[in-house]
């Protein structure tokens, strides 16, 4: 369950509320589970239940003073869950909590749902309640269709509410918050013992606390109560002036429209206006509203509701419910434009009886585009007045302006808070508006007289509720506000307004009288309850509606959608989560996207927690491109938000990127099927053909079937052929050559289909039918000739005519026979098109047999035909509409390996394999792993070039077909934390069905790594290390070097005979992904035979591997011999026998080529400076290693006469140490020393064929030279030692140190007997130690500046020589300066010349632009003159016509 998954996270204090399950409710323990102690004489005491999540956190506007249970504040009454199931009043007793925005929204939305579901059912002959808010509460009852809710004395209740994509179980207790004045701070009905509003509100507040911001501006951000009670999906549409027309059109589509009744006759209309009550009119309109707003839900009880219980078919379109809301007044708003909009909105809302301070949602019930009351018909005109009617002429000084009548646009809204507390609102003293404006809600600004409203006010004070509890101001309140509405619309005159007001007043009074007569028997409490049981309505102009309200809430009912997809995740992480959607349809796609975000968990009072919004980003996606796609949608929310996404026809791939702190839920509702989920679930759907492709293929194949069915019909066959040509030719193709090319392509594709269907059997019979069908006599790729000729005569003709040269007579005879046969064959084909002939009957029978086989698998054959057309038609295929979907088609294959646990700060090789590309194809590579840092390298084995990267990934690339394939290498770094073992997967994605395949049967998962650690000491060559590589067989390896300092620029290179073969430069890390070492040794005869056998098997495997797909997951095969595997690895990368034998000769059988490989690393640009401490530490470590070598040498020198067996064993041990690599155990003091590590990675089975040895050629040469000197002149080393000691003593302090030095020299001078026993180097070390103790003065002569070896007295000649040298240096420098200045002057002249050329070019461009602009201006001026001339002539004609009319009028007047 989701709760278990969330509960495993330690950061979460409580588990996620579980999904609703009836079995859990039936098994729920409604007591506290802890029995109290029994006392003598008393029963068992059961303590009350306390919510384990703590007390709920109320909004800041409600101050909680204490918490009480029902037994504490209901002392005189017995608590019940619900008392009156037909009506309730949540307004009268809750005025003290309406200062809280959250409470107003809860009450308003409960009333809105009650109105939507129950209004018509309560007004029917058998009143029935369809939706009951208390049925969301469960306590001491089992889950049933109509549960019986009983009061639980233990105080434990479970509520069923919708949250994060599903119905969930919310547990609450019965503790209620009270203020300091002992007022209940939760909604309650007028019946004080009813608990259902309090329990329901507690659970709703729990859900609201997961999304409410702590900004202090609003108590309701994006949380909606209606969704928690119904599961409807809220879409928030901001009302902005830019698209008000679209909003009006949208409201007319989703909300019922008010229309005037049709008039049968004037007499009936008069009686109807006088007698028809408002209840009848409202009932007619509400029946229309119910058909749109009502939704069958699991919580509805519609089976017992008369006509509502009738089953109706599912609606053709998704159903919605709409209401509007305004932004509450926030005085500390920084945006002054927002304050302006708030002020305008507040002023308009007061005119309609609403208050901007008490912001709440208002339900949109109807729209109206006509008058509320039909205008009276104009009086009848006597017939005699119709003869020569007198024209009224109004003389004005200005021409009359056309009067543009605004269309009537009204919206009916329903709310509990219409005229709420308007009579007690204090009028500001500093206002300049009269009091009547605030009281009446309008002020007439015209010259008309005001309308007296005394009677209406008195009527309103007495009560204005009709029989249904509905406010009668549907016309009454519009009567009050009609002058202002008429003033804004400028439609009605004063007389019309008086008539409408009088008619509305009479109708309202009659309806009110009927209501009083019907409800006279009811009690006062019931009547008062019914007054508030249903919300009030009023009409508002659409223009004022857009000013008053800033947001439109549209609730979509999910049960009305055909398909639904959802994804839910509860995980505390800052990383984005990705989902993919594939939509494919031949019709425009409309999709509802719902996004719910859990930004922070429920917190109790006294705790604070930072939160941020969840973000959903939807964009077009393609696996073939690295660049991000076009953005489709971006949503920010802290609760739930939805929107409609419209997509064009075709196949689309959308990426859903979700970033949410703790959890999210995405739900999609569509009318077409689609695929939604993670990448692994979506990718298989991309291998199928798109819907448009299948539709186009079906059209083509049906046209083929139409031709076959009408093949013997002389009249219908030409029409069918034209339809077929129009079907397979791309639209918009007008070129005749391309049309002929398309006909040829279709003929070849149709023959391919015939071969596919017939499985290449009886092709000779289908060949003639195909020729007759297409009338194609040109040579195409048609196969299948005469069976007799192909099977009997072929071998004889080839054997008899193979070595003969035909004569001219034979050639002429053959050409004549061919011409005669061709003419006969063509005439036979043409005759087969004539109905009634034998040939036509045979061809029709053959084609119908073919069509019968096609119909068995119609869709597959259609797709095959169109796909073959696409393969052949490269020029015109883009004109097909379905070609746009080809970019969304993709095939893929996976290769997976496993890796072991890795320590921190380690580098290791994950994957290295060779893949063969069967043809040129576009390939996208993707890596799936949990390793923090992993990089993939792809190398072309023919050119040794690496494929380019984009954002540390291999860029999508077209891989051309090559001989040796491509090597894919994956390396990884662990970072500062260890990496546990896991799975690594490589995915190939291509647009073609032929995928890259592995060069061997299974993927290798085991590698052998040789590691060598070296300490860095700066040197002149900047050399880090140098190693020799000895290869006994062709070998593939990966090389990597890593330094302790990550900022060092290093160069890793491989040399062959001191010639650089390959190199790579890196910073702190350098990798050569693949290097193929060639061997100098030839294999044994047995190995050569194995190589040949494996080579032949490999070629066969490669040939068969192109026809079948490899297994997607690697499996471990049985182990073979290491040498055979090595030969297979070296030879399997070839694709044909010639290349394989060539590679074998080059690598194994060519002893003439000698390879001497070495690996070295260099420090570039002196980028590794060492501190003094690091230098001393490295020097000490090197000295220790030298001392160890010296001791070993001295210890082993007397035993130089050992046998050859010991020498061989020592050599073997040394070679083993080379192969395995030196252990990287750090000694004391080595942690801070600068070092580098070389790693050589090869396959586990090939590790024994590679030997690595450190380069000691310089040391060995020096040692050999010294040994040669010693053998030629014994005692030379001792003499050299003595000379060095004398040189050292010469520059020492000679007063006190000289005798000691001489004594030490005598003592250190060995005798001839001890010459071979004592080491001269050891004596030098002892002498240096003694000098370090006795020397105190420092010789500064090496640090003094000297121009000559010996000091000389300066004379005139020396001074002259120095002067001459200085002059020579000056002259040389002066010449260099002159050359530099000349070069600079030359470059300056060139720049000036270039600048002049550029300026001239710009001037020419400007001149040409001015010239072109002048031509355009001249043309425009000529056109303007023509227009002016035409306008002048028109005005003259009008003036002449007017003069003529005036003259005619004068004549008429004179008469």
What would your notes on this structure say?
- By secondary structure, this protein is an alpha+beta fold.
- Strands 6, 7, 8, 9, 10, 11 and 12 form a seven-stranded mixed beta sheet that branches. Strands 17-16-19-14-21 form a five-stranded antiparallel beta sheet. Strands 36-35-38-33-40 form a five-stranded antiparallel beta sheet.
- Strand 35 (1049-1056) and strand 36 form a beta hairpin.
- Helix 20 (736-758) runs antiparallel to helix 21, helix 23 (808-832) packs across helix 24 and helix 26 packs across helix 27.
- The chain starts with a helix and ends with a helix.
- The relative contact order is 0.05.
- The N terminus is likely disordered.
User: What is Rg?
Assistant: 49 Å
| Helix segment tally | 35
Q: Fraction of residues in helices?
A: 25-40%
Q: Report the major sheet.
A: 7 strands, mixed
Report the oligomer.
single chain
């Amino acid at each position: 369950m989701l709760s278990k998954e969330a509960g495993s996270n330690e950061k979460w204090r409580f588990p996620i509320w579980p999904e609703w399950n009836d079995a859990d409710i039936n098994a729920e323990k409604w007591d506290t589970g802890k029995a109290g102690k029994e006392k003598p004489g008393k029963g068992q005491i059961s303590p009350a239940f306390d919510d384990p999540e703590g007390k709920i956190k109320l909004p800041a506007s409600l101050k909680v003073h204490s918490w009480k249970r029902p037994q504490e504040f209901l002392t005189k009454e017995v608590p019940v869950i619900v008392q009156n199931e037909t009506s309730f009043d949540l307004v009268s007793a809750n005025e003290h909590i309406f200062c809280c925005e959250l409470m107003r929204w809860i009450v308003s939305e409960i009333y809105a749902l009650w109105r939507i579901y129950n209004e018509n059912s309560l007004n029917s002959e058998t009143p029935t309640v369809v939706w009951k808010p208390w049925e969301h509460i469960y306590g001491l009852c089992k889950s049933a269709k109509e549960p019986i809710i009983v009061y639980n004395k233990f105080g434990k209740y479970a509520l069923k509410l919708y949250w994060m994509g599903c119905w969930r179980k919310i547990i609450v207790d019965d503790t209620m918050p009270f203020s300091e004045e002992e007022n209940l701070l939760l909604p309650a009905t007028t019946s004080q013992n009813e608990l259902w509003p309090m329990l329901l509100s507690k659970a709703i507040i729990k859900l609201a606390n997961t999304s409410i911001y702590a900004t202090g501006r609003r108590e309701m951000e994006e949380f909606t109560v209606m969704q928690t009670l119904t599961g409807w999906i809220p879409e928030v549409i901001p009302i902005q002036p830019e698209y008000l027309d679209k909003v009006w059109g949208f409201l007319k589509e989703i909300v019922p429209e008010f229309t005037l009744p049709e008039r049968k006759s004037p007499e009936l209309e008069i009686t109807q206006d006088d007698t028809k009550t408002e209840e009848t009119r409202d009932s007619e309109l509400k029946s229309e509203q119910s058909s749109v707003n009502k939704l069958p839900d699991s919580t509805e009880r519609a089976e017992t509701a008369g006509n509502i219980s009738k089953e109706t078919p599912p609606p053709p379109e998704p159903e919605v419910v709409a209401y509007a809301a305004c932004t509450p007044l926030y005085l500390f708003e920084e945006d002054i434009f927002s304050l302006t909009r708030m002020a305008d909105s507040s002023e308009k809302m007061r005119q309609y009886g609403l208050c901007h301070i008490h912001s709440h949602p208002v339900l949109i019930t109807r729209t109206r585009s006509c008058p509320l009351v039909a205008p009276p018909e104009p009086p009848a005109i006597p017939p005699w007045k119709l003869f020569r009617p007198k024209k009224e002429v109004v003389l004005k000084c200005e021409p009359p302006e056309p009067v543009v009548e605004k269309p009537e646009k009204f919206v009916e809204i329903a709310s509990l808070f219409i005229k709420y507390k308007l009579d007690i609102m204090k009028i500001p003293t500093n206002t300049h508006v009269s009091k009547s404006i605030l009281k009446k809600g309008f002020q007439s600004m015209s010259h008309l007289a005001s309308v007296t409203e005394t009677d209406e006010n008195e009527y309103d004070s007495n009560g204005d509720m009709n029989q249904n509890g509905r406010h009668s101001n549907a016309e009454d309140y519009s009567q009050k506000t009609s002058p202002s509405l008429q003033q804004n619309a400028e439609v009605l005159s004063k007389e019309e307004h008086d008539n409408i007001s009088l008619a509305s007043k009479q109708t309202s009074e009659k309806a009110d009288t009927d209501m009083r007569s019907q409800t006279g028997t009811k009690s006062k409490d019931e009547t008062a309850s019914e007054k508030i049981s249903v919300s009030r309505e009023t009409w508002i102009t659409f223009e004022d509606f857009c000013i008053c309200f800033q947001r439109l809430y549209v609730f979509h009912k999910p049960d009305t959608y055909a398909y639904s997809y959802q994804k839910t995740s509860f995980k505390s992480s800052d990383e984005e989560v990705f989902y993919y959607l594939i939509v494919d349809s031949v019709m425009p796609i409309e999709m509802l996207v719902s996004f719910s975000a859990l930004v922070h968990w429920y917190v109790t009072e006294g705790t604070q927690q930072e939160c941020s919004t969840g973000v959903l980003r939807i964009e077009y996606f393609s696996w073939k491109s690295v660049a991000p796609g076009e953005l489709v949608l971006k949503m920010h929310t802290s609760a739930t938000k939805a929107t409609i996404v419209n997509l064009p026809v075709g196949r689309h791939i959308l990426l859903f990127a979700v970033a949410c702190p703790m959890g999210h839920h995405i739900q999609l509702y569509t009318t077409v099927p689609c695929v939604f989920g993670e990448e692994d679930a979506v990718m298989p759907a991309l291998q199928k053909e798109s819907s448009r492709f299948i539709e186009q293929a079906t059209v083509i194949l049906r046209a083929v079937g139409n031709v076959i069915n009408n093949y013997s019909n002389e009249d219908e066959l030409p029409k069918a052929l034209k339809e077929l040509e129009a079907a397979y030719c791309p639209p918009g193709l007008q070129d005749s050559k391309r049309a002929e090319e398309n006909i040829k392509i279709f003929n070849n594709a149709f023959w391919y289909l015939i071969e596919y269907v017939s499985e290449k059997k009886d092709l000779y019979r289908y060949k003639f039918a195909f020729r007759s069908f297409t009338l194609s006599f040109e040579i195409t790729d048609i196969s299948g000739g005469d069976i007799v000729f192909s099977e009997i005569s072929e071998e004889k003709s080839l054997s008899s005519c193979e070595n003969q040269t035909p004569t001219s007579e034979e050639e002429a005879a053959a050409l004549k026979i061919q011409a005669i046969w061709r003419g006969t064959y063509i005439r036979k084909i043409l005759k087969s098109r004539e109905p009634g002939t034998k040939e036509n009957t045979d061809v029709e029978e053959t084609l119908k047999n073919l069509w019968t086989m096609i119909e068995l698998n119609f869709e597959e054959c259609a797709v095959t035909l169109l796909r073959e057309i696409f393969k052949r038609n490269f020029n015109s295929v883009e004109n097909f509409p379905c070609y746009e979907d080809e970019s969304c088609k993709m095939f893929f294959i996976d290769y997976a390996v496993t890796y072991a646990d890795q320590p921190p700060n380690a580098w290791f090789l994950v994957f290295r394999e060779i893949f063969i590309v069967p043809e040129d194809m576009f390939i996208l590579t993707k890596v799936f792993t949990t390793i923090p840092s992993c990089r993939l390298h792809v190398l072309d084995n023919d050119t040794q070039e690496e494929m380019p990267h984009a954002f540390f990934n291999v860029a999508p690339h077209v891989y051309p077909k090559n001989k040796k394939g491509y090597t894919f290498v994956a390396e990884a770094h662990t970072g500062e934390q260890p990496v546990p073992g896991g799975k690594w997967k490589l995915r190939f994605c291509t647009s073609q069905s032929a995928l890259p395949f592995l060069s061997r049967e299974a993927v290798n998962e085991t590698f052998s790594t040789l590691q060598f650690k070296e300490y860095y000491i700066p040197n002149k060559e900047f050399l880090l290390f140098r190693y020799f590589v000895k290869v006994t067989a062709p070998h593939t390896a990966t090389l990597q070097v890593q330094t302790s300092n990550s900022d060092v620029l290093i160069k890793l290179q491989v040399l062959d005979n001191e010639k650089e073969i390959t190199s790579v430069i890196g910073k702190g890390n350098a990798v050569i992904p693949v290097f193929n070492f060639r061997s100098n040794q030839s294999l044994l005869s047995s190995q050569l035979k194995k190589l040949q056998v494996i080579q032949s098997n490999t070629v066969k495997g490669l040939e068969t591997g192109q026809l079948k797909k490899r297994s997607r997951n690697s499996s471990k095969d049985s182990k073979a011999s290491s040498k055979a595997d090595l030969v297979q690895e070296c030879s399997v990368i070839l694709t044909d026998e010639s290349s394989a034998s060539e590679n074998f000769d080059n690598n194994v059988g060519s002893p003439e080529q000698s390879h001497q490989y070495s690996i070295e690393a260099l420090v570039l640009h002196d980028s590794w400076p060492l501190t003094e401490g690091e230098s001393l530490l490295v020097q000490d470590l090197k000295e220790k290693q030298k001392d160890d070598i010296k001791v070993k040498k001295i210890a082993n020198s007397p035993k130089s006469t050992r046998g050859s067996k010991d020498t061989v064993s020592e050599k073997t041990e040394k070679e083993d140490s080379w192969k395995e690599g030196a252990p990287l155990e750090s000694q004391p003091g080595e942690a801070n020393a600068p070092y580098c590590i070389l790693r050589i990675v090869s396959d586990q089975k090939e590790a024994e064929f590679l030997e690595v040895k450190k380069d000691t050629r310089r040391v060995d040469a020096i040692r050999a030279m010294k040994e040669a000197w010693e053998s030629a002149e014994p005692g030379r080393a001792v003499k050299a030692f003595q000379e060095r000691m004398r040189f050292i003593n010469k520059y020492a302090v000679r007063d006190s140190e000289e005798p000691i030095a001489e004594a030490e020299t005598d003592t250190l001078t060995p005798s001839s007997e001890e010459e071979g026993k004592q080491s001269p180097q050891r004596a030098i070390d002892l002498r240096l130690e003694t000098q370090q103790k006795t020397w105190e003065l420092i010789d500064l002569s090496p640090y003094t500046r000297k121009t000559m070896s010996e000091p000389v007295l300066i004379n005139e000649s020396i001074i002259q020589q120095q002067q001459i040298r200085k002059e020579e240096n000056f002259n040389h420098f002066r010449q260099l300066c002159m050359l530099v200045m000349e070069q600079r002057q030359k470059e300056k002249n060139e720049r000036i010349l270039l600048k002049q050329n550029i300026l001239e070019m710009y001037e020419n461009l400007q001149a040409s632009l001015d010239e072109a602009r002048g031509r355009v201006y001249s043309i425009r001026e000529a056109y303007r003159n023509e227009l002016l001339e035409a306008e002048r002539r028109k005005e003259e004609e009008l003036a002449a016509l007017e003069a003529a009319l005036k003259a005619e009028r004068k004549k008429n007047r004179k008469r």
